[in-house]
Input
Amino acid sequence: MYFIGVDIGGMSVKAGLVDEKGNILLKDTAVTRARASAEEIVADIAALVKKVVEAGGIHLSELGGIGVGSPGSVDDAAGVIRYSCNINFERTPIVALLGDALGVKNVKVSNDANCAALGETMFGAGRGAKNSVTVTLGTGVGTGIVVDGRLLTGNRSAGAEGGHVIIKAGGEKCGCGKRGCFEAYASATALMSRTARAVERHPESLLAQVAKERGIDGKTAFIAAKQGDKTAKRVVNDYIRYVGIGLVGFANVFYPEVFIIGGGISKEGDALILPLKEFVKKNAYGAEFNPPIDVVAATLGNDAGIIGAAALAM
Ligand code: BGC
Output
């Protein structure tokens, strides 16, 4: 039996054909028209799903179901995306819209980070852990919290929004309109604006040269830092420290066995993961007396969202 997993991101929508074991057989992406109407975005998603199903040589009626992961507050039970700060969804009944457009009955939706956590728990780095916190570092910052083997999502699945925990009163402006959110410091977007500011302040740096050659994205500062550039190292160290501060906060509340770091920035691997592990070890309350907390990169990488979304429909 095959399933479709859809991962809606701020920049692109990914859809994959997934089997029951969590293997992606094929996948495709489309640009997210984040400011288009919700109906237009859903129509784009339906077209992408059709394309993937056709490329897989099967018919929509043969699908076991479709699962969708979306940023924002999602009413899982009602199949409605209530609100998303990075995409134009407001009380969008995505399950009904997508189900009607494609003639598929089994359509499910949940928050994208919850999907990533589900994917990692079932098929990736979270297997065997009863308590884990998945943190996705992308356009936004999402968290999927597993406590005693169950996803913790709060009243009508409106919670687990770790990206909007305030880590600095009156701090940087967040995409949600508030100030000082974890996301405003730990997202790829935040890293990019810090990189841009550092380039402006230090036009003589290697960072500025790398930025000129390849543009600024979430990798730029890591690339220049690896080559020993001081300015880039400062940007990267500050960034990692902020991510660490967020993790320590989550550690003190949930005390997971493992933090699973996903999203685009997790591709940095050890350059990100090792210092984070050290930071959590040093700063989590009572860490020298309590069980160790591991920090690992998502094994499913950026596919965790697709696989976890598909798992919603399994
Ligand atoms: C949203 C979350 C989402 C995260 C990652 C945040 O801005 O509030 O719901 O999980 O971005 O996409």
User: Anything to note?
Assistant: The longest helix spans residues 230-254. The mean pLDDT is 96.
